[in-house]
Amino acid sequence: MAIDYGSKRTGLAVTDPLQIIATALTTVPTSEALEYIYQYALKEKVEAYVIGIPRHLNNTEADIVPAIEKFITLLENKIPGAVVHRVDERFTSKMATRSLLESAQSRKTRQDKSVIDKISATIILQWWMEQIKR
């Protein structure tokens, strides 16, 4: 499962059992993300959590990183044994927006930040799966 953590919304994505393709799952209010992920993990096997860590172009961490690290600690406490991978998510929002533009989605859909969040999570997960296959 990939997590694109945001101060207001958190995008989530999952993969098929063979880990071939990442699929957008949903976007939830960040205040509800931990419980949503916990409930999902009770029903579905989650091998690992891939969480995007935003960085600036100069490779410094974004201001939200302490909140992400706190979320990771809460996740690890809520789901003992959870395997968490941190990945650089520097360009995922831009890639998600470009993906929406290229897919000829309506203007309303392209401006819906919740759509961008779950597509960003999908990009994070797809990238991660490609990296571990190498």
Task: Describe the fold and architecture.
With 134 residues, this protein is α/β, with parallel strands linked by helices. It has one domain (2-133): Nucleotidyltransferase, domain 5, CATH 3.30.420.140. The protein has helices at 30-43, 65-78, 92-102, 107-111, 113-133, and strands at residues 2-4, 9-15, 22-29, 49-53, 84-88. It has a 5-stranded mixed beta sheet, with helices on both faces. The longest helix has 21 residues, at 113-133. It is globular. 29% of the residues are buried. The model has no long low-confidence stretch (mean pLDDT 85).
What's a quick, concise take on this entry?
The chain has 134 residues and is of the alpha/beta class. 49% of the residues lie in helices and 21% in strands. The protein has a five-stranded mixed sheet, sandwiched between helices.
Structural class: alpha/beta
Q: What portion of residues is helical?
A: 40-55%
Query: Under the CATH scheme, which class?
Result: Alpha Beta
Overall body shape: globular
Counting DSSP H or I runs of 4 or more residues, the number of helices is 5
CATH architecture type: 2-Layer Sandwich
Reconstruct the topology from this structure.
Elements: E1 2-4, E2 9-15, E3 22-29, H1 30-43, E4 49-53, H2 65-78, E5 84-88, H3 92-102, H4 107-111, H5 113-133
Parallel strand pairs: 1-4, 4-5
Antiparallel strand pairs: 1-2, 2-3
Helix pairs in contact: 3-5
Characteristic key phrases:
134 residues; alpha/beta; Nucleotidyltransferase, domain 5; 5-stranded mixed beta sheet; 49% helix
